Amino acid sequence: MTTIRESSADIDAAAARWAARVDRGPLSDKEQADLEAWAARDPRRAGAYAKALAISAHLDRAQGLSAAFSPSTHPVARAADRRRLLATGGVLAAASVVGAVGYGAMSLRGRMTTSKGDIRRAPLSDGSAVTLNTATTIRAAFDGKMRRVDLLRGEALFDVAKDPARPFVVLAGDVRVRAVGTSFTVRAHADGEVGVIVREGVVEVWRGSQGKPVRLAAEHAIQVASLGALTPTVVGAAAVDRALAWRQGQIDLDGLTLGQAAEEFARYSDRRIVIDDPTVARLKMTGLFSASDPDGFAKAAAMSLGLTATPRADGVRLSRG
Amino acid sequence: MTLATQERAIWLARNALPHEPALRAWLSRRPLAGLEVDDIVQETYAILAALEAVDHIQTPRTYMFEVAKSVILRSLRRSRIVAFEALAEAEALVPPSAEPSPETVAADRQELSRIAALIAGLPTKCREAFTLRKVHGLSQREVAQRMGVSENTVEKHVGKGIGVLMKAMGRGGNGRFQASKDRSSEDPIEVDHDPREQRRH
After folding, report:
1. Strand A136-142 relative to strand A175-179: parallel, antiparallel, unpaired?
2. What whole-number percentage of chain A has pLDDT above 90?
3. Residue B136: exposed, middle, or buried by beta-carbon count in 10 A (0-12, 13-18, 19+)?
4. Which of B17, B165, B188 sits opposite A103 (nearest CB)?
5. Mean pLDDT by 10 residues, chain B (201 residues)
6. B chain contacts of residue A74, beta-carbon cutoff 8 Å
7. In sequence order, what are the residues at sequence separation of 6 or more whose Cβ sits closer than 8 angstroms to the Cβ of residue A19?
């Protein structure tokens, strides 16, 4: 790259000029197009423009509060301006109420489902929030004593609002996870195992059949099979973040083999990554990839590992040579 | 790149501007191989401006920090050759947890007096135009008439004023904090309630 990078100070100055132009009155079509073209050249420009506009709006909001400025006040202009702002706020509030009602109608008696490839975040009535990963179904049932959520399949992140009087319990098959106020994920694996990762706070995990709970602190994880001891492991903050990459529609491949990666992609899409050669399936990968692009991943993997990616009707095959 | 709307600008003024000093302080304490804090901040605003909706953002401060972190990671990953340590360090960045909310009103007052001082420091004509427009709420056209100058001149004065505040705000030490849980509200779902509980209300 030999182009000279525009300094952020220059960008700020240009953005301030645009904000002043907008402050003057509506832009002509030509000016609007110029502004858009200018901002499209560099995301830093769009950002500086947003900040300049924010400062301009901020000052409008502050009108009348600043008694330090004496000369000839204009109560009429000021009041009109405040009315305009209030009117805008009212419309926004009304719009968000309509939105909430529309979405609420989608839920059916506390049940919520995502289809393959979807991610959805939703608040629960107690102030907690749940984020569903791909192909996931939960059912929530709260009463005065307990907040119960059944993870019927898939994976979900729970951001639990504090309520010591009503524990928050997630049931995944035989496994129970209890929290008071915390943030954690539960994943029901296809083979019946259940994985729990704690982001914040403390949770307790036990099997419904044998009630001895294990305490799991933040940045700890546990993998619960149908038999065997419950042994938490420390994973660290960075690993927790990576394990939650699905919230941004990404798959974290750090340390996974190609075979495991193909299985991960199969959770999110019907496009298959086929690997027949076991030595290929054992190759290790790293990085974050978009969960919705198994073909792109296969191509990138082929390039970096020296494999051949052959397109198929239902996906792509990875092989040597 | 999606341009900020007026509504989004108002949201940013409330929810992003107050946290910019803290964000800058946080960023400047980290090793950011080849990255400029100014660039990261500008790109952070660009992403906040382009978000489809913001009603779900309950902790704007944390959100803003997370966006800044994603900007760092993205630019590190975009560059072909990245020192492994730099990437690992950036990935391990944890935004400071939100601090309990102090009296926002007092902070607002302080900030206003700061803004007043900044405006007072502008060149005379610029200050006069900026004050009439932004403090007293005249339109740029009205300001031009009152001052006996062209609208273009007023626009330049206003731009100058905004530019000065851009530089000052965000770099000052007026960090304000808000505390609440980070929560989204895209798809509220109804929860089965025990009828007994409803009777208690």
Report:
1. unpaired
2. 25
3. buried
4. B188
5. 84 88 84 77 93 85 89 72 57 61 50 74 87 83 93 94 85 36 35 42 38
6. 136-138
7. A49, A52, A53, A55, A56, B159, B162
Check if A159 contacts B (Cβ < 8 Å): yes
- Mean pLDDT score, A133-146: 87
CA–CA min distance A287, chain B (Å): 9
- As a CATH number, domain B104-168 is 1.10.10.10
> Are B189 and A104 an interchain contact pair (Cβ–Cβ within 8 Å)?
yes
Are B23 and B95 in contact, with CB atoms under 8 Å apart?
Answer: no
Q: Is the pLDDT of residue A10 over 80?
A: yes
Distance CA A289, CA A301 (A): 11
> Which pair of structure tokens corresponds to residue A198?
């704690």
Using the Cβ of A115 and the Cβ atoms of chain B, whether some distance falls under 8 Å is answered with no
Q: What is the pLDDT of residue A101?
A: 26
Query: For residues B44-68, b (16+ Cβ closer than 10 Å) or e, as one string?
Result: bbbbbbbeeebebbbbbbbbbbbbb
pTM of the model: 0.45
Q: State what percent of residues in chain A have pLDDT above 70.
A: 81
Of B199 and A218, the one with more pLDDT: A218
Give the residue, A231 or B179, on which the prediction is more confident: A231
Q: What is the pLDDT of residue B123?
A: 86
Counted residue by residue, chain A has a size of: 321
Give the nearest partner residue to B12 out of A51, A60, A122, using CB atoms.
A51
Contact (Cβ atoms closer than 8 angstroms) between residue B38 and residue A42 = no
Question: Distance, in angstroms, between A227 CA and closest chain B CA?
Answer: 32
B10 with A61: Cβ contact below 8 A: yes
Domain ranges of chain B: 6-91, 104-168
- Identify whether the C-beta of residue A204 lies closer than 8 Å to the C-beta of residue A178: yes
pLDDT above 70 (res A72): no
* Confidence label for A21 from pLDDT (cuts 50, 70 and 90): very high
Give the nearest chain B residue to A79 (CA atoms): B137
> Could you give all domains of chain A from N- to C-terminal order, each with its CATH number?
7-57 (no CATH), 111-238 (2.60.120.1440), 249-319 (3.55.50.30)
Question: Testing the interface with A: which of B36, B42, B89 to mutate, by most A Cβ within 10 A?
Answer: B42
Average pLDDT, integer, range A203-207: 91
- Cβ contacts of A12 on chain B, cutoff 8 Å: 42, 163, 166-167
